[in-house]
Each structure stands twice: as C-alpha cells, then as structure tokens.
Automatic annotation (TrEMBL):
CDD domains referenced in this protein's UniProt entry, alphabetically: HAD_Pase (cd07516)
Keywords recorded for this protein, A-Z: Hydrolase
Lineage: Bacteria, Bacillati, Bacillota, Bacilli, Bacillales
Origin: domain of life: Bacteria
Name of the protein this chain belongs to: Cof-type HAD-IIB family hydrolase
Provenance organism: Paenibacillus gyeongsangnamensis
UniProt cross-references to NCBIfam families, sorted A to Z: Cof-subfamily
InterPro entries: Cof, HAD-like_sf, HAD_sf
Amino acid sequence: MMKLVKSKYRIIALDVDGTLLNDRYELTSGTVESVRMAHDAGARIVLCTGRGPANAIPVLEQMKLDGVLITHNGAVTVETPSRRLLHQISFQVAELESLTVYCRERQVHFDVCTAWEMYAEGIGEEAKAMYAKFMLTPHIVPDVLRHAEPLVKFTLFGSEEQMDRVEADIPALELPPSLTAIRSGVHFIDVMPAAASKGEALKELAALWGVDRSAVVAMGNYYNDVDMIRFAGLGIAMDNSPEDVKKAADAVVPSNNEEGVRFALQRYVLS
C-alpha cells in the first residue's frame, strides 16, 4: 500500500471510455483504489466524458465518489448527488436538418441528446449492442426534427470506414458556424455547439474553484480530449491514443487495458 501524501494537484480530470475504463467497460479494483487515494489526498475527481450524465454518474458512484461531472463533451456540467444541472450549451435540432436527412438517406445511425435524455428514430442490431455496452436505452421517436426541447449533442455511429466517409462529407453539408463536428471515437462523430468542449468546461470549473491550471491533471485518449489535455498543467494521454493525441500530452502512460490511470496517479500524483 502506497503511503498517502497530500497532492499538489487539486483537480484530476478523467475521460471515461478508453481511459478510465478498459475495453470491456470495466473499472479495475486497482484503478478505483488509486482514484480514491488521489481523492483522499485532496484532489477533486472530475469525470470529463462524451457520455451524458445518465450513464456517467454510475461510473463515479461505482468508485463511491460524488462531485462534478463534465458530460456531453463539455456541453453539460452536473453535480452529484443532487443531480443539479450547473451548465449547459444547447442548440435546436432544426439547425441539423441537412445532417439528419443525410443520415436517413445513407442509413447512418444517429441519436440526439438533451442534457439527460437520448432519442433515436430506430435501432438496428449493431446500435442495440453498442447501447447495451454503454448502459443506454434511447427513446424511439418517429421524427427527431419535431423535437422542441434544446439539444446538446447529435451523435453518428457506425463502422470506422463509414465514419471516415461521414467525416469527409460533413463540410459539404454546411453546418451552422455555431456547431462543430468532432471525432469522439473510432465509431462515433459528435456534432455539438462549437463553444462547448471538455477543455473549456474544465477551464471554467477550475476558475470557479480558484484552481490554477498548474494544479490540474487531465487524462484522455481521443481527439475530444486534446483541448483539456493541453489546458491542464499536466496533460496525460493513454498509450491507446492516436499519435496526434499523444503529441498534445506532457506524458504518455500505459493503455486503458493496462491500468494507465492507476499508473499515472501513482507516478505523478501520489508519489
């Protein structure tokens, strides 16, 4: 057992999928122990994820922690255990009519999210298996374009080849300049407000808590993590990250399947 010391880091921002969880979507006991030790050493643990609150909060609860989570890639910040919505950046689904029609015509699976809920027009077998892994059950609706409540994210899902094609086609769809598309995983593209990002949300949270960026650690593994990795005083990439993500980091640690978060916390935070 490592001797507990007071950490110089006051915020530890952790991406969830591909970083905190292994590829079986599991939290290992060693990772949980290290995260809790960092918490006990005085650091606030902040999950920063593309997930929504509904399936991000259980990950925090599994570690027997509560606090603040940055979700939907920075579009929504919530507090637990109160489940209070602290911050939201949203848009109207009508702004993505061209993308919705594109997805329907090319049979690209998509869903839309409010801060707390998810909606889809249908679910095939591959999408059903994906949602099961992420502990999600979208509401099925006949036409998402009729949705009146503000949205925070529009997500496309498919094979790597299909997402590569979509990524190449998106510029021709002329999305409003207030929205941006980001590759949030091999099989995912998220379209959301350009003003929202994990890095901006983390920056605002650090300012709210009076924490200098030098006292912030951020760990991630994909392109939607790059801005928070660059913002943090110590930005860490998992070894399973693409090369451009690794280049943005101050350090690269073992992969999510090799308890990279545990390794990083023991080397940089708890030593």
